[in-house]
Structure formats: structure tokens, C-alpha cells
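Record type: monomer structure entry
Structure origin: computed from sequence
Chain ID: A
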Amino acid sequence: MEIVTFSDPPFNSKFSGNTIDICPVGALTSADFRFKARVWELVDTPSVCGHCPVGCNIILGARVGEIRRSVPRQNEAVNEVWICDKGRFAHHYLRSPQRIPTPLIRRDGQLVQTTWEEALKFASSELARIQKQFGPQALAGIGSLRTTNEEQYLFQKFMRVVLGTNNLDHRLEGGWGEAERWALPTASIRALEEADAILMVGCDPSEEVPVLELRIKKAMRRHAAKLIVLSPRPLELSARATHWLQHRPGSEGAVLAGILKRLLESSSLDEKSRRSIEDSLPTTATDLGLSEDELDGAAATLAQTQRVALL
């Protein structure tokens, strides 16, 4: 017979591990860390979680050279005292048996194990051959999203100075280049919970940046912040939203144009300025899967608020 806790409905949270930290008597233990080490045996190292862009502050506890646990490190401006379960438990990929422990070189159509010395010699000779035969512009590099700023700096230095090419990036998507051209101001993480209205466009904080979900919920709970969600599919936060605009997939731009045109109609701008802005907007699609009332409601909510956060 096994004695367990009764939970109906079941405890389903992306932050379940935090219950261990806030237990006042230390009676709760992580099954993931249990019997792995004594706390006083750990070598604790302050670090930053790399699983999402939030950059939660954490402490990595290691024993015999291996990470045994990850716990939150207080930083009120970022994650306060919380981390999501991914940041707490996903460190096991570091010693996963599915990771490639040694370099591989393709020979006769098959990947075979080799030494680091041979792999580095092969890579350098191939890069030199391509550079000499086709020129530096035939080379390109993509950095990892998991590497540090210092490592990314060294990577771009290697590509630009050693190989002589500017063909490098750290993203697999190309959409941000156009957006960055406008140099839009960004707010702090803490400022999110001070917003009067939060507009979510094509994102899912609950999955992508879980700690920001806590900030959004805090804003809604503490001063009744309005949440407007643009998403063609149900999200965890859409059920809490003031307005959920369930538009047709791919029509986010047209929905935003429709909201902006309604905001311009109620603005104090002169007619000439308003017309110039409206003329620059894309034509709103006739079939967004939304009613006029839904667009009117979202626009009215935004018009009535002073501090709006855009995600």
C-alpha cells in the first residue's frame, strides 16, 4: 500500500516545483532530487536560466561535477522568487544518453565517431577550402540560442575576422529584422504587471515565457488590468481574457489594422494626420472570423487605458 496525497482536480501547474521552496518546514521534497545528494554536499553556482528569453535567476547545485538541482535565485526585477518547472527540472538534457558525446564525420555516407583533434582539423580544412575556392561569401554561420553573449561575440568575431564573412545569425526565423528597423521602445519585465491593458498578439506566454504569465495574472488580480488576446487557437490565458479575438490563422496584421483604424476614429488627431496614417495601413481583410462588435470592444478597451503593454 502506498500513501499519497488526494488531489481532485489534479495539481496541474507549470510552477509546481515552487511548492517545495515555499514549504515553511521543509517537509516537501522533489522526487527528482531525492536521494541524489545532501544539500550540504552541493557546490552552488549562481546562474541564469537559458530555456526562454526571460532569463530567470537560478542557482545550480552540483555534486561530483554534475548538476543535481536547479532552484530560483531572488531577483525582483526578473523572476522575483519563482521559476517554472522547465527551468527547475529540464537540466537533465545535459547528461542525456541521447546527446552526442563525441564528434562525428560522414564517411561513405555514414556518420562515424572520431577524435576532437581530427574533427577540428577536418572542419578547419573544409572551411579554408571553401573560402579559397568560392570566396568568404560562400560561408555562413548560425549561432545557438543557448550560448552566452560572450560566446556569441566570439562566434561573430571568428566569422567576420577569420573567415571574412558577415553571413551570420542566431535565429532560424527572419521576421524580426523588419521589426527591429523601427527601434520600438521596450518595457521592463516588472513594468508588465503595472500595465492597465495587455495586448497579446500571436504569442503564448504560458508556454513560451511562463514567468511572464505570472506578471500578467498579477496585473489582472491587483488592479483589474484588461487582457486582449489575438490568437486563432485557445490558450491558457484566453479563458481569462477580457477580449479573445479568435481570428483566422495568419490574419493578425489585418486584425491590428482594424483595431488601429477604430482607435484613429476616436482620436484627437486632425483629419489630415488621421488620413495619412489610415492610408498607410494595409487593407483590412473582409473575413477575419470576427464580428464588428469584437473589434469595437477591443478598440474601446485600449482607448480607455493609459498604460498598454504589447506582447
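Annotation 1: The domain at 18-95 is CATH 2.20.25 (N-terminal domain of TfIIb).
Annotation 2: The radius of gyration is 25 Å.
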